[in-house]
Amino acid sequence: MADRFQILKVNGSANVNAAFDAETGGGGGSAANAEQPPNGPASGPAHENHLQPKATDGGESRRTSRLSFRGFGQFLRKSDAERKFSLAQLTKETLPRLDNYRISMRNLKRPSIGELQGEVDQTINIPDAAEPEPTGGHIKLGWIVGVLIPCLLNIWGVMLFLRLSWVVAEAGILWALIIIAVSSVVCVITTLSLSAISTNGEVKGGGVYFIISRSLGPEFGASVGVVFAFANAVSASMNTIGFCESLNLLLKSNGLIIVDNGINDIRIVGSVTILVLILICCVGMEWETKAQNFLIFTIILAIINFLIGSAIGPRGDEQQISRGFVGFSWSTFKDNFGSDYRYAEGVNHNFFSVFAIFFPSVTGIQAGANICGDLKDAGAAIPKGTFWGLLISMTSYVLFVLFAGGAAVRDASGFPEDLVNGTIVPSELPCIQSGNCSWGLFNSYEMMQEMSLWGPLIYAGCFAATLSTALTNLLSVPRLVQALGIDQIYPGLIFFSKPYGKHGEPYRGYVLTFFISTGFLLIGELNLIAPLISTFYLASYALINFCTFHAAFVKPLGWRPTFKYYNAWLSLFGFAMCVAIMFLINYVAAIITFGIIFALYLVVMYRKPDANWGSTTQAQQYKAALMAVHRLQNVSDHVKNYHPQVLVLSGDPKTRPPLVDFGFLLTKNNSLMFVGNIIPVRVGYKNRQNLVKDGQKYLDARKIKAFYNVIDGFSIEDGINAMIKSTGFGKMAPNIVLVGYKPDWNYCRKEEVESYFAILHNAFSQRMGVAVLRLPNGLDFSDLTPKVVMPDNGMGHLNTANGQGFANELLPAANAASELLHIDSNLNLANMDSASPHNSYTIPQEAPLPNMQSCRSYKINNSDAASITYHTKAGSEVPQTVLDEMNIFTRKQPKGTIDVFWLYDDGGLTILLPYIISMRSHWQNCKLRVFTMCHGKDEEQEEKSMASLLTKFRIKYSELVMLKGVQDQPRHDTMLKHKRLIEPFRRSPRNEFGITDDELHSMAEKTQRQLRIHELVVKHSSNATLVVMSLPMPRKEAISAPLYMSWLEMLTSDIKCPVVLARGNQTPVLTLYS
């Protein structure tokens, strides 16, 4: 066997590679537990191999060893025999096999990296919806029966026997051949494209829809699939009308009539015919295949009958000659060589109108692809069968044109007395003068019967050709509808996709097809339906060609078709050719067709189905993004193109919505935003992926465009430093770090204060801007339990523990890391969904709440896409004030002010951030007020200078205030408050960590300035909606962490609105110049 692993006997002992010991993990079947020989350890050079199995110690180990190798005892004693073990007995590795790459129920799972590394499974096993098991066998067809015959039956349709002679009369032999040639070029190019796509992997049921949707995505595939299914249903109507017309001619020639021998007969007979054909399709593939074999045989006999009859000629039969069948002659060929377009059926015909009527006769090349799910090897059958079908059918059309144009005249009276010397002389025909000729290629659709060897066989061939094409169309439409319904692209089609019986027949789809086809059949005019079908088919062919061009142009690694005879630019030419012909045939119908496709496209775009098929559109997006990033990397930074790219250190974004909302307020529709979460314990790969997926789902539900990432196994300080350095790439990296304020700094452990101070210092060391957000009542809402509810669009399987809003109860309630970041700058690990490497996720059941009849919940985001509901964990009501604080940056703000205290020149970030906020729709009622300091020499001149600067920056503000008295002594109560604040941190014999007297003395002037600024902020901004002020620089070598935190506390305290402390990295983000 190919998957057996071979072990040879070397020097009298089994040479077992020790690399397999770790892989088997010492299991019962492991070669690592080989039992020691009875005579003790082996000695001598022959037994000193390091791969020799070693003796085991302990009774239990020996018993396990004996159990493990009991079956190998006699095997090892075999002399000079090959030792062969199954690979599965020696390793967890698997060999490359087809079943490992399937996406169906037959898929065999290869071991994951975690299993090979021996990791403990840490995930929740949420079973996916089971696929329905096949209820029986399914008939698979070869390339002849499955592709060639359906293609021929589709192409040899109503035009072959009823309209081809009329095409020759209108266009002439030359232009009829050109029409066939143009149609052939379109079909050949489309067939090349179709063959390339269909050989690029397995093609399932759904035909053209499957091919386009898996290549260009569900938007294009679904819209074209609906149009194509509709075109096939209408094509079935057209061919049924052709059958009814030929039947009417046959009845009329025999003096029979049903109602009026006209349109009403067509409607009655056609409705019954479609019903019978639908019943044949419902019976199953076996009966349909048998019917196809009989029909193709009849058509071939009719074609041979026509060719032989035309070659023999009328044989002196004056009745036939008077009807226009004069036999082959050079004069007849010359007369019919050129075009003679006439007015017929209410239309002044030209080349394109005739082309529009003829083109549906070559639209059968997709017949094999329509039932590709029923083919044994679709990748090989579709190219081979389609090309042979195209070659045979086009050859037959060319022969028909030459024979009809060379052996019959355009106009004839049908009266033998009008003949001159046994032949037709057009100038002598009275009917030409009066314009009422009833025979000839122009005037009679029965010329094929007249020219054939035996007329009734032509009727049989016409019946077979029309009915076979209608049957093939009716067979493909329900399967297209079924494929669309199974993929759940359009909800209205899901009902019609239900399979029945052992073969999964779409009976409901057959009913839908019957009503559509019958509705168009009631029109009763073949020439009115044909142009509409032409535009539908041409649109489908255009997108097939575009699919191949797009895939070949983008060249994703998954594009590896086994059919090599295609060219990307030839496919693009085919696409352009199809579109051009559509508009030349009938620009109104073309516009309507593209309008329908666009409307169906918008429906899919709006619904956003959970369909990820690896389309070339996705590959193109990746390639375009990659090229744009590379180009951007080579562009030098310019201050005019500055974008605030924010890294939000929020921890779990569900616990700190205001911090995430504020970050998005700065970056919305303008720049990048990253959300970071640091977990100081290792949680394992799968748990980390679940956390990332859960956080990203929350952001998507809030319609926040951001990238969420989790780093585990590092301390908070080291993790944040790593995240600052590694987040993003090239120019797509953050330049601002946004953290929340730490309100518990004055009673937490000293390590936490030091770490928080170091985070700010290190951010500036990496040349990042820093913003600190503080709310009056804090940012932490981890005491509420959020629940993300996604819409029912196929994404319901994302029900992780985080998605349900449950915390991981396996972690201790608090630890050093959680105490450090029980702050608003990062996360509270006590409520974080993390786990140790040996833990697993659990979803606890909600316990009944004491003294509560129900649990109050509030939605903070209500949209059609998704909603997020916050519940109280204890069952109490969520106060409206809490909800308002949670949504402070997303709700509409009343009239107010954004006060900006631009105290130090940091490059302009302190003034730019509030300006961005004021431009948002929810904050446009808030006007900017700018406060700045002056040197005290010439305050009036400095105010004018600042006003001029803001004007040149194009910063619109309502008021400019120059702060006076910044250097004055703070009030006594302010200084007393600060003294009490830092008192616990004063250094003493019992507290080596703290603020020294020397530090207080050296920083006294700066401390007083911060206290004075606090007083001025409280004085001027007591009624502000938002306050933004310059952040003091955290210098590690100059100031201790407690003293710096006391500055931040004083600057942001006693303010009733959100406060943002911001500082740039001293590089300009604003410019005066255009």
In words, what does this structure look like?
It is a single chain. By secondary structure, this protein is α/β, with parallel strands linked by helices. Among the domains are: 459 residues, Amino acid/polyamine transporter I (Up-down Bundle); 113 residues, Rossmann fold (3-Layer(aba) Sandwich), CATH 3.40.50; 169 residues, Rossmann fold, CATH 3.40.50. The protein has 38 helices and 19 strands. Helix 27 links the parallel strand 7 and strand 8. Helix 6 crosses helix 12, helix 8 crosses helix 15 and helix 11 packs across helix 12. The protein starts with a strand and ends in an 11-residue tail after the last strand.
Give the proportion of residues in helices: 40-55%
Terminal CA distance: 75 Å
Uncertain residue segments: 1-73, 122-137, 792-865
* Cα gyration radius (Å): 41 Å
CATH class of one domain: Mainly Alpha
Oligomeric category: single chain
Strand content: 5-15%
CATH topology grouping of one domain? Amino acid/polyamine transporter I
Q: In which order are the strands of the major sheet placed? A: 9-8-7-10-11-19-18-15-16-17
User: Outline, from the CA principal axes?
Assistant: elongated
Kindly list the characteristics that best describe this protein:
1074 residues, Bumetanide-sensitive sodium-(Potassium)-chloride cotransporter, single chain, 3-stranded antiparallel β-sheet, 38 helices, elongated, Rossmann fold, alpha/beta, transmembrane helix, transmembrane, AA-permease/SLC12A_dom, Amino acid/polyamine transporter I, membrane
